[in-house]
Amino acid sequence: MFRAWIETELWPAARKTGVGEKTFRAAMAGVTLNWDLPDLVPPGSRPKAEQAQSQAEFSSPGAYFSEKRLQGLAATGRRLFKTHAATLRRIEQRFGVPGEIVVAVWGRESGFGSAKIPYSAVEVLATKAFMSTRRDLFRRELIAALHIVDGGDRTVEQLKGSWAGALGQPQFMPTSFLQYAVDFDGDGLRDIWGSVPDSLASIANYLARKGWKPGRDWGFEVSIPAGVSCAQEGPDRARPVSAWAAQGIERISGKAFPAGEAGASGMMLVPAGTHGPEFIVTPNFYVLKEYNNSDLYALFIGNLADRIAYGAGPFRGRWGDVGKMLRSDVLAMQKALVAEGYDVGKVDGLPGFKTRRSLGDWQAKSGLAPTCYPDASLKARLH
To answer: What are 299-321's pLDDT values in tens digits?
Structure first.
C-alpha cells in the first residue's frame, strides 16, 4: 500500500512541482515506514478521539523555565557568542538581528549544534505524509525535502532531521530551508548541519524575513499596578510604551524604559495572568513566536538572549501554581465565555491571550478580581 501510494499519489504531486524523476527514484527507492513515530494513523484506522490534556508550551511554566537548564545554556551561549563574535557582527550588519538573539535560538533548538539529529528526514516525512494526522502538511514538506536534494545542497543520506522532520542546527522544516537557509561561509552550499556561519545566518534571515525590527528590544518584565486590568493584553491592543508607563506600569528592574522605546508600540503580555511574571513586549516578541508559536518559547528565547548579552538572571515574578487545569476544563470555560459573547480565539482548551483577557473581563463584570487565567475555583462559576 505504501509503495502504491508513492507511485500513484506522491510521484505525480512531486513531478508537478518540478522534482526530477532521477532524484525522486533514488530518494524513495529504499524508504520504509517508521512505525515508532508519534501521531500515526495507519490506513483503515481513525485518529484517536481524545485530546492531549497537556502541552509543554502551555503548561507547567515553572518547569519550562528550568533555572538549571537556562544557566547551562547561558554559560555555553556566552562562550560561543565570543567565539563567533566576528561572524555574528557580520550577520547583524546584514540582517539586523542581534547576535544574542540568534545564539539563543541556536541554543534552544539544537543545543548550539550539539544535539543528535539522527533520523532520515525523507523516511520521517514519507511516513508522516502517508499516515499521520497532518498528511497534507507532511506531503508538502516531503516534496520540499526532495527539492533540497534536487538542488544539490544535500544528498538523501545527508538529509538528517528530528522525529518531526525538522532539519539541522536551526531545526528548519524543509519548506523553511528552501525559503530562508543561506550560504554564509561562501562554499556554495546552504549547510545548516555542519556550518555554524550558515546555521546562524539562516536563523537571522528567518527572523529578519518574518519582520524583526532592528534597534528594538524583544520586551521587558514589568510590574502592573493592582488597579490596572490584566485584560488589556494582546498584539491587537498595542499602544506606545509611554502610554503603558503612564498607567503606572514599570520595569521590574527599576530602570526606565529606553528612550528609543517610549514612542514605539508595545503590548501587555501576562502568560499566566496575575499568577506569573508580567511583560510589555515589542513586535519583535511576536517575530520570535514565528519560530515556535508559544508565548513561553518566545519568553525563553528573550530571557536566554538577555543572559547571554547582559548577564541577566531569571524573571523576577514567580510562576504560580498554574498549568494544572485539564484542557477539557479550559475548553468548557471557553465554550461558556463564547456563549456569553466573548471572543476567546480558538476554542481548543488552551488559554491563549484572547481566552485570558476574556476571562479577565468576565471576572470584572462578575464582581471578581481579574486574574486573567483559568483555575479550579472558576469551574463551578463559569460553566
So the answer is: 999 999 999 999 999 999 999 87
